[in-house]
Amino acid sequence: MKIAVIGTGYVGLVSGACLSDFGHEIICADLNQEKINALNNGRIPIFEPGLEQIVIENSANGLLSFTTDVADAVRQSEVVFIAVGTPSRASDGHADLEYVYSAARTIASAMDGYTVVVTKSTVPVGTGDEVERIIAEANRDADFSVVSNPEFLREGAAIDDFKRPDRIVAGVEDERARVVMSEVYRPLFLNQSPVLFVSRRTSELIKYAANSFLAMKISFINEIADLCEVVGADVQDVARGIGLDNRIGSKFLNAGPGYGGSCFPKDTLALVKTAQDNESPVRLIETVVNYNDNRKRAMARKVIAACGGDVRGKTIAILGLTFKPNTDDMRDAPSISIVTALQDAGATIRAYDPEGMDESQAIFNNVIYADDPYGAAEGADALVIVTEWEVFRALDLLRLAEIMNSSILVDLRNIYRAEDVEKNGFKYSSIGRPAIFTAANMVT
Q: Rounded to an integer, what distance in angstroms lies between the CA atom of residue 315 and that of residue 368?
């Protein structure tokens, strides 16, 4: 099939690349000339494992192309995916649909013959109705269907998620659109990936409900971690104990500094606003949003406490800046609140992240960047692990103790065991665990 993807951000580029890998002929369109030039020269604007190879291979074999001529891409295609950004509006927290509606107007003016317009962007309930209205009013002769097809991609694992999905959700309102969407995803039928056909509004809500539930699960275990610290329990054992219940599951039960990224903060807030507008408030999600914001700031206080209650004039080494490993995404990363609060308290920050330092320079002022974890730690009064990159999981603790000014390790991801750290002379602080483990309470 010939498919256009409007938007070459994270979702659009991953979706377009993977669809071309299925054998579809994909045209990715974006108004950003610099980005399109880079893509046409094989340069990928985001870090996502495996993406560069797919883009280069399918560009070379003619299945994937990039253009700034959005209208021409639409005109050539029988399916058009809208994959533009829907950031939170600064004024009220609602999803900003300006780019979605602009894409709809371009599609209306350019479509040639029956076209299935697929909203891939995360949008509030009812957005598909508005897209349909915009196209119908702009082009009264248009023959088209509007479909909701939300993405469920994890940054750092997006290629695998797209090619081996848990489920494919398609919100359709007519049989013709259902047939076309079945053909788009036919290559996945061999993997027996379940395709869930629902109404368009139901599909739109599924996306928000899924992300909000996962965000709630993260906040739940973080609250339990706070309780564990007070009563002397181990949150990792608690998480394992409840996660083995298949009604609960073990995923998203890793206590830490709070969630961030491009989806959870934006989508939970958008769901709250949608529910309020429809006079059906979602109190649980409102609490999750507020708790997570407070959680990030609390992590800076935890670091300060580990340093004796004062970090003024001290150097704090931060390992990990992105909101999660295997991405360069800094959007709503916990590190932003942590670094800012520590700087406000008078600390000097030295940081290292395998992929996020270029992005972070547009966010932070007066942060010193190192070439590796040991460069960040040299002369530091405390070392703080914020993001659980694999390169941080087996640090040479003896070397760190020798090069640091004070042997303080604050592990906000619980990737070390207290006994292993403390035997190297460190004062160790982690999330939701007793300060010292004994052999009796260790689970292997």
A: 10
- pTM for the structure as a whole: 0.91
Phi, psi of 216 (to 5 degrees): -65, -40
Please list the active-site residues.
Answer: 263
Please check the confidence at residue 139 and state whether its pLDDT lies above 90: yes
Give the helix/strand (H/E) hosting 80: strand 79-82
Q: Which domains does the chain have, with CATH numbers?
A: 2-198 (3.40.50.720), 243-441 (3.40.50.720)
> Using one digit for the tens of pLDDT, what is the confidence trace for 202-219?
999 999 999 999 999 999
Q: Please say whether the dihedral angle defined by the alpha carbons of residues 150, 154, 155 and 157, taken in this order, is positive or negative.
A: negative
Contact at 8 Å (CB) between 130 and 101? yes
What is the pLDDT, as a whole number, of residue 435? 62
How many CB atoms within 10 Å of residue 362? 7
Tell whether the model's pLDDT for residue 191 goes beyond 90.
Answer: no
DSSP state letter for 83: -
In angstroms, the CA 110 to CA 27 distance is 15
Phi, psi of 353 (to 5 degrees): -145, 135
Q: Give the model's pLDDT for residue 439.
A: 37
**Helices 127-138 and 98-110, interaxial angle, to 10°?**
40
Please give the helix or strand (H or E) that residue 81 lies within, else none.
Answer: strand 79-82
153 CB contacts (<8 Å, ≥6 apart)? 10, 11, 14, 161, 162
Predicted confidence (pLDDT) per residue in 42-78, tens digit = 999 999 999 999 999 999 999 999 999 999 999 999 9
Residue with tokens 């689970």: 443
